[in-house]
């Protein structure tokens, strides 16, 4: 049986849906107030992120398509990935120029490796 990532509830901040809270974006922030009910883990306030929601070690870093992501900075790293490319996707470093990103994307596509943030020219 193939391993599958765990499901977990959406972790939202308290009173997120309240009328006066429309300016508050839906994201998680650790509660720090002295009287905060969520910080004291009251059930009616909803779930809070804990260590128990973690995935198995072999699934950490695995993307939605089942491949692992590898960050590539230069040609040498790209060649290493190509030589051992089984179930790997490439993420091009943000420090690369558009010209190099286009070259790396072309090389990766020739070797049938998916580039997550490639430049097509």
Structure report:
This protein is α/β, with parallel strands linked by helices. Strands 1-2-3 form a three-stranded parallel beta sheet, with helices on one face. It is elongated, with a radius of gyration of 21 Å. The model has no long low-confidence stretch (mean pLDDT 87).
Mean pLDDT: 87
Largest sheet: 3 strands, parallel
Q: How much of the sequence is in beta strands?
A: 5-15%
Contiguous uncertain segments of 5+ residues: none
Nutshell version of this structure?
It is built from 2 helices and 3 strands, in the order βαβαβ. It has 121 residues and is α/β, with parallel strands linked by helices.
Compile the SSE list and pairings.
Blueprint: E1 68-72, H1 75-83, E2 88-92, H2 98-110, E3 114-115
Parallel strand pairs: 1-2, 2-3
Keywords:
three-stranded parallel β-sheet, 2 helices, 2 domains, 121 residues, alpha/beta, elongated
């Amino acid at each position: 049986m193939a391993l599958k990532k765990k499901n977990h509830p959406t972790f939202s901040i308290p009173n997120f849906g309240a009328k006066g809270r429309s300016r508050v974006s839906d994201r998680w922030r650790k509660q720090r107030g002295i009287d905060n009910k969520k910080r004291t883990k009251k059930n009616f306030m909803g779930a809070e992120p804990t260590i128990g929601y973690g995935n198995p070690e072999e699934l950490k870093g695995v993307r939605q398509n089942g491949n692992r992501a590898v960050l590539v900075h230069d040609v040498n790293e790209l060649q290493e990935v190509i030589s051992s490319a089984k179930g790997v996707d490439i993420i091009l470093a943000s420090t690369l120029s558009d010209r190099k990103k286009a070259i790396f994307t072309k090389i990766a596509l020739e070797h049938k490796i998916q580039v997550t943030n490639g430049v097509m020219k």
